């Protein structure tokens, strides 16, 4: 079965709907008449599709059930290296893994989408975790040169102090209806206090 020839998979790659890739390949794998994964199966795309969706466990299971010969291909090895970096939250290593391999089409588009999604996720983590961060550290974590990092973060309202090379993180305001963990803690405290009164 030539999975790349499947209409739904071709459409997902061509339209940039990379979130559909893993599900389509999972379904095709289940429908396959063979108990073994075919040699022409897009193994790396299958792993990367799960990574794109944030399903690192599923990506690991795809890798674990691959035939030994498939595990040795350069693209699958590159996907495995990327998976290991994402799994261990080695974000600096993630950027090296993304750029260290010449990904074949149509996987290269999926990798580009994964890079954008990963950068957005890391940016969100930085916003929640830091009040101030050195520009060089933010650049390394975001996988960008410092100048591009400055442009990106300043568009989001962060401030840069050139004297100290430190970024002041702009915390987005809490919108009405959003709950914080302090709200959850307060509710839990009130609930426990209510139970103790009975």
Structural features, described:
It is found in: Cytoplasm; Nucleus. It comes from [Myrmecia] bisecta. The chain has a three-stranded antiparallel sheet with strand order 1-3-2. The longest helix has 23 residues, at 107-129. It starts with 6 loop residues before the first helix and ends with a helix. The protein has eleven helices and three strands. Helix 3 runs antiparallel to helix 4 (56-64), helix 3 runs parallel beside helix 6 (74-87) and helix 9 (135-142) crosses helix 10. The chain has 198 residues and is mainly alpha-helical. The chain has two domains: 3-101, no CATH class; 130-198, Arc Repressor Mutant, subunit A (Orthogonal Bundle).
Report a brief summary of the structure.
This protein has two domains: 3-101, no CATH class; 130-198, Orthogonal Bundle (Arc Repressor Mutant, subunit A). 63% of the residues lie in helices and 5% in strands.
- What ranges have pLDDT less than 50 throughout 5 or more consecutive residues? none
Number of domains: 2
Estimate the global geometry from the Cα principal axes.
globular
Order of helices and strands: HHHHHHHHEHHEEH
Largest sheet: 3 strands, antiparallel
Which strand order spans the largest sheet, edge to edge or round the barrel?
1-3-2
Give the averaged pLDDT, no decimals: 90
Q: Structural class of the secondary structure composition?
A: mainly alpha
Helical amount among residues, as a percent range? Answer: 55-70%
Based on DSSP secondary structure assignment, what is the total number of beta strands?
Answer: 3
Work out the strand percent: under 5%
Rg from C-alpha positions? Answer: 21 Å
Number of helices: 11
Organism: [Myrmecia] bisecta
InterPro entries: COP9_CSN8, CSN8_PSD8_EIF3K
Keywords: Cytoplasm, Nucleus, Signalosome
Pfam family, one: CSN8_PSD8_EIF3K
């Amino acid at each position: 079965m030539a999975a790349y020839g499947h209409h739904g998979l071709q459409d997902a790659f061509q339209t940039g709907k990379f979130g559909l890739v893993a599900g389509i390949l999972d379904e095709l794998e289940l429908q396959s008449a063979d108990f073994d994964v075919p040699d022409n199966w897009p193994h790396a795309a299958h792993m990367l599709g799960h990574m794109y969706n944030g399903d690192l466990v599923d990506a690991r299971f795809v890798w674990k059930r691959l035939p030994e010969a498939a595990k040795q291909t350069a693209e699958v090895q590159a996907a495995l290296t990327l998976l290991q970096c994402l799994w261990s939250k080695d974000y600096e290593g993630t950027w090296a893994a993304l750029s260290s391999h010449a990904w074949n089409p149509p996987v290269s588009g999926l990798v580009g989408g994964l890079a954008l999604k990963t950068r957005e996720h890391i940016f969100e983590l930085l916003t929640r975790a830091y009040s101030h961060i050195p520009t060089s550290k933010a650049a390394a974590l975001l996988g960008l040169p410092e100048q591009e990092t400055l442009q990106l973060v300043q568009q989001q309202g962060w401030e840069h102090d050139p004297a100290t090379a430190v970024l002041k993180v702009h915390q987005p305001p809490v919108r009405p209806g959003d709950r914080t963990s302090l709200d959850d803690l307060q509710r839990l405290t009130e609930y426990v206090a209510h139970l103790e009164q009975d």
